[in-house]
Amino acid sequence: MGFERVVPAHQGRGAENVLFGALLEDGDVVPNNTHFDTTRAHVANQGAEPVDCPLSVGLDPGSEHPFKGNMDVDRLRSVVDEAGAERVPAVLLTVTNNSMAGQPVSVENTREVAAFADEIDATFVVDACRFAENAAFVGSREDEFAGATVAEIAREQLSYADAVTMSGKKDALANVGGFVACRDEALFERCKERAILYEGFPTYGGLAGRDLEAMAVGLREAVERSYVTDRLEGVAALGRRLVAAGVPVYQPFGGHAVYLDAGEFLPHLDDGAFPGQALVCECYLEGAVRGVELGSFAFPGTDRPELVRLALPRRTYGSEHLEHAAETVAAVYDRRHAVPGMDVTSEPSTPELRHFSADLEPRKPLGAAD
Fold first, then answer.
1. Which residues are within 8 A (CB) of 332 and not within 5 positions of it... i.e. 6 or more apart?
2. What CA–CA distance (Å, rounded) separates 90 from 31?
3. pTM for this one?
């Protein structure tokens, strides 16, 4: 990945805690193409304000664009102009863009964001959890990289970052683990000190030796063309099955998941009835298919589309599993008009974390037919 200074952590959110605690202060503003849940929460936990700068086309589940995960650089500039560069110590870029339906980010966009971060003297941080999947998309969609290997593309894209956060459970193909990697020696030392408080000694980050070894092997395997091609094709196969059944999904398909368009799926439910949460519950009751809502409930106060993520475990599902998942969702779609909305009965005081621990109840019994 091109970094010599690495601080291991027990998982990705541990890495975020280490890095953001070393970078951010109360009153800071932190732009990102789109913050994911724990990223947003860790930024807010430091007293900083997370601000999303997605492309407008990314907010439209049916629009066509090869890199809907890109940062809107004009929006980024506006955010910094309004806040003042002195309040923006870091600029983040998430690849692929998990909250924006797993959409890829181009190398060209990465270069533009890195150049702007340098212009305002901000640390440019890449959330690299799915760097290999993103690189594979770049290879097929960005002309400059036609014929390049996944590893070559990944190394080029990450070369512009001052620091990265990584979850080993994504493109390191491990069961646990993560890390912060950075180029600046002073930042590295601050991260090591913070890691000792929260993760463990910087040589192991709270992990067993076998877990560190597994991440090292997984990082190499993730950039093998055969692996990542099979990975993306599995996601696309599920997406094609759902489209054939008439189910509204976000397109193009993402790298690690198919995202259902819950707003279109359940048009009789407004955002206040949390259509994504209702759809998640119905799919589980129908066929034990477990998804996650990534809309108005997970990200309160934002204008993100109402999405439900169907993420595929790596090296786990065969065609029969994909068929069952598609049939389950299609069955719910057939009785979609009977799906009730949801009400929140309790939630945590931290709004960025409410979809982890809040309680909801349906407005009428779930699993009912017309």
1. 279, 282, 283, 286, 339
2. 8
3. 0.94
Domain residue limits, the chain? 5-221, 225-362
Cα 49 from Cα 123, distance rounded (Å): 16
Q: Which amino acid is at 31?
A: P
Calculate the CA dihedral of residues 276, 280, 286, 287 and round it to 10 degrees.
140
The answer to whether 5-221 and 225-362 have equal CATH topology is no
Instruction: Please give the pLDDT value at position 350.
Output: 85
What's the token pair of residue 350?
């931290």
Q: What is 225-362's CATH number?
A: 3.90.1150.10
Q: What phi and psi values does residue 249 have, to the nearest 5 degrees?
A: -130, 160
Tell me the average pLDDT across 311-316: 92
- Residues ≥6 apart with Cβ < 8 Å to 141: 66, 67, 104, 106
Q: Describe the chain by its helix, strand, coil percentages, rounded to 5.
A: 45, 15, 40
Q: Report which of 103, 112, 118, 28 is spatially closest to residue 74, judged by C-alpha positions.
A: 112
What is the per-residue DSSP string for 297-343?
A: TTSTTS----EEEEEPPTTT--HHHHHHHHHHHHHHHHTGGG---EE
* Cβ partners under 8 Å of residue 351, min gap 6: 300, 301
Beta strands 5-9 and 292-294, pairing class: unpaired
What is the rounded distance in angstroms from the CA atom of residue 325 to the CA atom of residue 314? 16
Q: In what order do the strands lie in the sheet with 257-261?
A: 257-261, 307-311, 292-294
Instruction: Please check whether residue 242 is in contact with residue 330, taking contact to mean a CB–CB distance below 8 angstroms.
Output: yes
The CATH class of 5-221 is: alpha beta
Short-list 271, 270, 291, CA closest to 282: 291
Please write the tens of the pLDDT for every residue from 183-220: 999 999 999 999 999 999 999 999 999 999 999 999 99
CA distance linking residue 115 with residue 267, whole number of Å: 42
